Please model this.
Amino acid sequence: MLTSFSLSQLLAISTLYLLALFGVAWISERGWIPRRIMRHPLTYTLSLGVYASAWAFYGTVGMAYQYGYGFLASYLGVSGAFLLAPVLLYPILRITHTYQLSSLADLFAFRFRSTAAGTLTTVFMLLGLLPLLALQIQSVADSISILTHEPLQERVALAFCGLITLFTMLFGARHVATREKHEGLVFAIAFESVVKLVALGGIGLYALYGVFDGPQDLQQWLLQNQSALTALHTPLQEGPWRTLLLVFFASAIVMPHMYHMAFTENLNPRAMVTASWGLPLLLLLFSLAVPLILWSCLKLGATTSPEYFTLGLGIAVESETLALLAYVGGLSAASGLIIVLTLALSGMVLNHIVLPLYQPPAEGNIYRWLKWTRRGLICAIILAGYGFYRLLKAEQDLSNLGIVAFVATLQFLPATLSVLYWPNANRRGFIAGLLAGMLVWAVSLLLPLLGNVQTLYVPVFSTVYVLDDTSWHLAAIASLAANVLIFTLVSLFTEASADEVSAAEACAVDNVRRPQRRELLAVSPQEFAAQLAKPLGAMTAQKEVERALRDLHLPFDERRPYALRRLRDRLEANLSGLMGPSVAQDLVENFLPYKSGSQAYVSEDIHFIETRLEDYHSRLTGLAAELDTLRRYHRQTLQELPMGVCSLATDQEIVMWNHAMEDLTEIPAQQVIGSRLDALPSPWRELLVCFVDLNIEHLHKQRLNLDGQARWLNLHKAAIEEPLAPGSNGLVLLIEDVTETQLLEDKLVHSERLASIGRLAAGVAHEIGNPITGIACLAQNLKEEREGDGEIEEASLQILEQTKRVSRIVQSLMSFAHAGTRTHNSEPVCLAEVAREAIGLLSLNKRSHDVQFFNLCHPDHWVSGDPQRLAQVLINLLSNARDASPDGGTIRVSSEQQGDSIELIVEDEGSGIPRAIMDRLFEPFFTTKDPGKGTGLGLALVYSIVEEHYGQISIDSPAFPDRQCGTRIRVTLPRHVEATSDEP
Ligand code: ADP
Ligand code: MG
Model:
């Protein structure tokens, strides 16, 4: 009569199904499925469908039978949680990602900075979820026995457990490090949701169109069977409904499998947005089928208990396909949940029970040890679920089992909300509240379940309280109330440690974390690795440090204290992903401690706040946004200030380094912000450290040699109070580059000196002129008087010769001296003409060696000035060039127009001028020539004449760098404007 399957058939189907599931996971892990699809929000949303476990697949029909529309609570509760995603789920996702917390226990251990919190959460989670695991096992065993008509549940259950253990290990514990995301798992669970949807949808559609004849027939039937409808309505007003809503709301976040899929395995944070409406939609589709299945089974008078109506429908209409569809759907729901739940729980047990008690020796391969321990735990947890199932002797309703589990997890809701919204909560409050809630739960729900007793004396209500199917919600409310009350009171009346407060701030929604600024004992990543090698082994430590550096995009030779602090935080987060936050915290605190001496100075990291504010920028609104704009404006002002600005914290850590500073020092801000002042490269370190230590506030004209060039700097400093560390003083340094001014001043001083020497020379020349004329006269007389006296005549000739020479010097001295004082006429001068004259004059001197002069001046180049004086300039420059040139050398005079000025260029191919004397060329009396050959006044005169003409002079030597010879002198003179039109 009825469709019947053999046991082996069903087991084969189950194995095949699980193999297919594993195949899907395997394929996606091999990367055969495009990343685009793997990270698609739809995949994520479907993977969250793990929520619909066997309990939802089978149990909700039973619930609809029992509670009427109350069954919708499971759908509405979780939808509520997901619709609140921006304020509820997204912040948790952020914390989970930032600190690599892979479970609720991790989250609590991190937030309350307490291993006990994590352990307690794990223990209770385990205890609370055993009924849920048992439920899945029971549902599979029951459905098999319904289909085979053989009461073989227990052995079937064991076989199923063995199978699923194997697959769970394959899914989740194949990888070396636990923090690796299981892309394959995500995809497999998403696939499973599709299977469930197809199964439930198919059965629902069959119910609508197969059992009933479409919606109209259903309407008809409902009218005839009013009781079926009223049964759905009546209990809505009562307590269980609201409690169910709350319970399912909480389960969306706190259930380990939901937490695991929603946060830990999240591949794409943005997918959360889609899931916030996608998951409710998916669950709506699931629940649409429920009343249809219920009514059709009522109509057909299905023989199974209402809980298995989904399966019963197929049996009632004797359709093998339908029954099998229901079986596979149920199997998929159960296995999906078991796999994810066990993975999540095994991670929790590993991190919070095993690792705090025993840590693997540093010599071994920690990754492998972790993998195998986790496998063992998976085995143990599934076995425990099986044990629990056996303990209950399969006599419980699915919905009862589910509710006990859901109420247990409800106890974690207050603490979860406090993580986000109540920074004052502390670990004592959490532990006390949790213990109280769990105690009430155990007494009022777990014990009755275990003892299989229906009546139990519960002192809380001080009356005889009968626990039955409808009053469980009182137990739920009582446990939650006790929990919240004690949690709040204890938190309010006890103090939290500084560590905990900082963790609380880190977790609170929209809080910018302000890490403390202390100095670490280890000063380089290498030291980090060396320290961590003690507990982790050298290989693992090195790997972890490298990984953290990579995550932060820091170089391997990083030494900035700020960066090292971030490295430490990152290491803690990464290790937390590997071994749980308690152990990670322990390791980091013990092996990467802060310097104890620096403890006194605890301030907050302004730079870090700044970076975080940048991230938050787009999310700020109202006053906060305006303040942020103001902050940016001020910051901009400082950054763009045309003066170097650098601010220091009390411990001389560089907090700001503006653009002018970057330009001046050629050190990018990126490289110095967060490091100590004494870590700056030379010569800046010496300069700034010295200035900071000085007791004066301004330092003028500090000379600094930068790449062989002298720079002059003015330094200023002022103390500023650090806004986030009252009582400690930072410093702001201002550095002004006054090199330009200094050079101008030097020039001024130089010409001033020249002028004063000129005046002196004039006076001396004048004074010497008269006696010399006297001596010349006397010598002349003597010569004439002693004509014929050879010796005396010879001597007087010598005297005359020497006095001539003295007069020549005096002459040039006079002309040099008068250069600065004489007013000269300004007229148009043709440079080509002047050059021709000068060359002509020089050529008269037959005594010196032969050189060739080339006059290449453009005849149209006119300047305004004094032709005589300009000729003097050229004569001096040309004679210098001739002196420097070898025999037969060439000397070119040329001119070039540059805007409003004309450049007169004298170029030779001679010896060139050594760099060392370049600075002194224009000094009067500076010469390299033999005594009697040069006076050293030539260039000095040129300089003062050019100056008189408002011109400039510059020297290039060597002019021909390839031959290392020659000199080029450029004299820039103002152009005569109408020159070309006036003159021929
Ligand atoms: P003097 O010619 O009397 O030595 P100057 O003031 O004219 O004095 O020149 C100063 C010095 O500059 C010279 O002694 C010479 O060493 C150097 N000097 C000037 N012009 C040239 C040049 N064209 N090539 C090489 N050295 C030069
Ligand atoms: Mg000269």
Q: What stands out?
A: The mean pLDDT is 82.
